[in-house]
C-alpha cells in the first residue's frame, strides 16, 4: 500500500472519476518503489529529511530522531511521485514519458544516498 493516497494522485492529475482508482493505486505503488530505488532508500524521505542527532552544548548526544511512518513525506518527493505516475497514466509519446521521468529524477536527486565519491 502506498504512502501517498490515490485521492492525492487523482487531485494532482485532475482525475474526477473513480473507474481508474485500482490502476492509479498500482501506478502509485510502482512510482513510490521506483523513487525509493532511485534514491537508494527503503522508504520515502519524510520531514524533517535529515533527522540529525541532537547534541547539547558539550557535544553529548541528547536524542536521535528516527523517521516514522506517521511523518509527512517531503512535498517535493510527493511531486516527483506524481510525475512518475503521470508518465505512466497520461503521457502520449515516449518523449513525454522521458521528460516527466527526467523531471522526477531531478527533483529526487538531492535525496539520493550511497552514491560514493
Strands, count? 2
Globally, the shape reads: elongated
Low-confidence parts: none
Tell me the number of helical segments per DSSP (H or I, 4 or more residues long).
Answer: 4
Biggest sheet overview: 2 strands, antiparallel
The helix content is: 40-55%
- Note the run of SSEs as H and E: HHEEHH
The chain-level mean pLDDT equals: 87
Which strand order spans the largest sheet, edge to edge or round the barrel? 1-2
Would you write up a description of this structure?
It comes from Imbroritus primus. This is Phage gp6-like head-tail connector protein. There is one protein chain. The protein is mostly helical. It has a domain at 6-47 and 73-111. The protein contains four helices and two strands. The chain has helices spanning 6-13, 21-39, 75-89, 94-108; strands at 54-55, 61-63. It has a two-stranded antiparallel ribbon. Helix 2 (21-39) crosses helix 3 (75-89) and helix 3 runs antiparallel to helix 4 (94-108). The longest helix is centred in the first third of the chain and has 19 residues, at 21-39. The radius of gyration is 17 Å and the shape is elongated. The N and C termini lie far apart (34 Å).
Amino acid at each position: 500500500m502506498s504512502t501517498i493516497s490515490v485521492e492525492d494522485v487523482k487531485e494532482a492529475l485532475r482525475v474526477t472519476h473513480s473507474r481508474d482508482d485500482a490502476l492509479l493505486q498500482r501506478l502509485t505503488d510502482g512510482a513510490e518503489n521506483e523513487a525509493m530505488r532511485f534514491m537508494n532508500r527503503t522508504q520515502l524521505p519524510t520531514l524533517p529529511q535529515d533527522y540529525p542527532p541532537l547534541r547539547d552544548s558539550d557535544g553529548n548526544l541528547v536524542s536521535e530522531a528516527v523517521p516514522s511512518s506517521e511523518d509527512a513525506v517531503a512535498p517535493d518527493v510527493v511531486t516527483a511521485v506524481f510525475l512518475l505516475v503521470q508518465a505512466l497514466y497520461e503521457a502520449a509519446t515516449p518523449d513525454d514519458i522521458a521528460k516527466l521521468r527526467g523531471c522526477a529524477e531531478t527533483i529526487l536527486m538531492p535525496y539520493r544516498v550511497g552514491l560514493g565519491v
